[in-house]
């Protein structure tokens, strides 16, 4: 009786894949995308996850505190070398349109009494980044929205300009709502509908045939032909993938675009920051047609 009881209570064999199968690229991407459904990862997430305690804030998974006592190393890097911070979780709002119309409406949500404005000459040329506090339209000194940083794209001879405004994810919705109101941008310019993650088996076969020409075919998973490539999740921590990300005004012609997670932002601190940039970035040669 004990033997029969043991046979009935025997658990079924686990269907979990072996470690080698789990570590395959297609399976890793699928697992990473599954874990990003609620909290979006930055491009440096893997590096931070191995060295930091991660915290879930504002729809992102961010490095909160280091696992090792690296405060002295960070301080030494800031004072003598170079320290890099990933600020890509900051939201980027892009404004495109005529310069006069942009400055006219942006003057309603800031004040010269607080310091620099969008019309500052050094910032308007595109050489320097500016910072200021935004307020509700025509409500200064009341109705403060929060601090932002901005940078203009240098002039290219056209009257149309591009302005990038960086806002904290906690302030994005309020500031975006105010910008859409002052520029009268109510109609979505385009709505992005992401492609489905799964494809038909027939399409997958055709893709495998094209990719396998002249190359060694990779070993299939246990599912065989059912294994499909996994696409990266579209969207960010403050916007759903199915929401519109660009709005246009029929009266002013101004276009507001949400460039969050499309334009990344890094901060370099330290005396060798300029040297690191010059060694990393190479100037392109000018080509005239």
TrEMBL record:
Short name of any one Pfam family annotated for the protein: POP1_N
InterPro entries: Pop1, Pop1_N
Domain Pop1 N-terminal: 4-97
Domain of life: Eukaryota
Protein name: POP1 protein
CC terms in the record's Gene Ontology section: nucleolar ribonuclease P complex; ribonuclease MRP complex
GO biological process: tRNA 5'-leader removal
Transmembrane spans: none
Gene from which the chain derives: Pop1
């Amino acid at each position: 009786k004990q033997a029969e009881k043991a046979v009935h209570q025997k658990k079924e064999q686990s269907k979990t894949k072996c470690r080698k199968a789990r570590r395959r690229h297609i399976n890793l991407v699928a697992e990473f995308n599954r874990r990003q459904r609620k909290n979006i990862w930055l491009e440096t997430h893997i590096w931070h996850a191995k060295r930091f305690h991660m915290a879930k804030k504002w729809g992102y998974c961010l490095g909160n505190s280091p696992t090792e006592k690296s405060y002295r190393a960070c301080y030494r890097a800031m004072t003598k070398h170079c320290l890099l911070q990933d600020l890509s979780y900051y939201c980027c709002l892009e404004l495109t349109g005529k310069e006069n119309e942009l400055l006219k409406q942006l003057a309603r949500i800031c004040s010269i009494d607080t310091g620099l404005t969008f019309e500052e000459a050094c910032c308007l040329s595109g050489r320097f980044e500016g910072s200021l506090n935004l307020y509700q339209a025509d409500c200064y000194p009341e109705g403060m929205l929060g601090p932002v940083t901005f940078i203009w794209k240098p002039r290219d001879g056209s009257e149309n300009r591009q302005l990038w405004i960086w806002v904290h994810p906690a302030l994005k919705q309020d500031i975006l709502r105010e910008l859409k109101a002052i520029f009268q941008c109510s109609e979505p310019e385009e709505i992005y509908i992401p492609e489905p993650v799964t494809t038909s088996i027939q399409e997958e076969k055709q893709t495998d045939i094209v990719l396998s020409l002249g190359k060694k075919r990779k070993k299939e998973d246990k599912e065989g032909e059912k294994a499909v490539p996994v696409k990266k999740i579209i969207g960010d921590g403050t916007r759903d993938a199915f929401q519109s990300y660009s709005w246009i005004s029929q009266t002013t012609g101004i276009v507001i675009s949400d460039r969050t997670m499309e334009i990344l932002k890094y901060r370099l601190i330290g005396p060798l920051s300029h040297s690191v940039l010059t060694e990393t970035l190479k100037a392109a040669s000018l080509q005239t047609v």
